[in-house]
Amino acid sequence: GEKEKVDTSIQVALVSSLFLGWRDSKSEITAEDDNTxxxxxxxxxxxxxxxxVLLDEASFALLKxxxxxxxxxxxxxIPAEIYRYDAAYNQHNIADFKRRNxxxxxxxxxxxxxxxxxxxxxxxxPSKEVMYCSWAKEHLNKEQxxxxxxxxxxxxxxxxxxxxxxxxxxxxVVHRSILAAKSAKFAAAIRFSMLNxxxxxxSGAVRVHVDLSLKxxxxxxxxxxxxxxxxxxxxxxxxxxxxxxxxxxxxxxxxCPSLSLECEMRLLSAxxxxxxxxxxCHSLQTDLTIRDRHKMVSVDSNNVDEDxxxxxxxxxxxxxxxxxxxxxxxxxxxxxxxxxxxxxxxHKHSITAQKIDSRGEASTDxxxxxxxxxxxxxxxxxxxxxxxxxxxxxxxxLSQFHAxxxxxxxxxxxxxxxxxxxxxSLLLLQTCLDDLIDFPLGDRADKYREPSLAVDHKSSExxxxxxxxxxSPI
Length: 474
Prior knowledge:
Elements: H1 2-25, H2 38-41, H3 43-50, H4 57-69, E1 82-94, H5 113-118, H6 134-139, H7 149-157, E2 162-167, E3 170-175, H8 176-182, H9 184-195, E4 206-210, H10 214-226, H11 237-253, H12 257-268, E5 283-285, H13 290-295, E6 310-321, H14 332-339, E7 351-356, E8 362-369, H15 374-386, H16 388-391, H17 395-409, H18 421-435
Parallel strand pairs: 2-4
Antiparallel strand pairs: 1-6, 1-7, 2-3, 5-6, 7-8
Helix pairs in contact: 1-4, 8-9, 11-12, 14-15, 15-18
């Protein structure tokens, strides 16, 4: 109908103005050329965005293709893109002192050791009503306690491994080995406390002071023990996104790359409120010999020495499908801000992206990304471009804008040009367009290369197949 023709014309005008403005920004145009300055050319796009025009999926695909090829494509038909994301992390067990040096193969029954231990630490657990893990719910009784022979045996064995985390006004009794295996900062803090004899007078347990909120500490500990946050994230998407971004920065501080990986996978997922543990993950490989384990490039910090009782016992493969539920116009700017701060874990944090069609079938092309949050950033860029007018009204953008103005006012650099709101908007728009040149989720993404064991997902394996069998209950 007539409305469809008008809408199509507006999309064509928006794609054309965005591409031409971006192309002009790459040409030899000086700031004195007022009529042809690239930021002025982008002003028509900004006008459309401020009038409420959204860049739809098909138009975004055309824009991305045009920028990648440096040639405007308006007649191409490019289907909407939905992605599937795969990643993996190492799950630890409690090693048997007498057997650990004999080259034995780990068995499924060992994979739940630290999860069983977690269920005995009441102060860390969320309530069953907000718990994501079906395994944990099944093994907690009505009083939210676990009582069985294996739990009793493990707790007795770990008495000498206990330490205390002092968080706000709370003392959490946890276990040194698993914290040190998952977090290099915990490993260093525990060693420091032991050297300085910072111990509890009554129990003799090592004490470690943690400068985090109790809520964030619980999420961190749940991940260390169980491989996944057990539950308790905010049901409100924007608040949940902010919690995961805060956790990502904590993962950076505590040198816990597997937590950073979990945060990004949840942000990318259409279903972020699910468990990603050894029981709930897409597939689990447990037939790892000691030789295999030494060959692995772990997503954990591996700062534990040879006397540690915590050992890698399996590789948990994660799989989530888009589109993201948490990366929205309200949160996209925050995603970009966090991306600029998380770069320690390059080559220890790997996500494989793969296109899926409307029937849910995956394409043969894959791409693997080893820089933290590069996939989440790309999704945020797409979200910003598609909802640019809405983004300009969000609290996150306005906060960034006012912070930039304050920085310029306090700057000693006399060459800084005063900026108004439109100038900042145009610079954001140009930055997002520049990122489409090598957009990770696009035609110019590096093709998939076979990663190491710790980040390998064998799609041919099934949950009940060899090497991918789900671990048996405790």
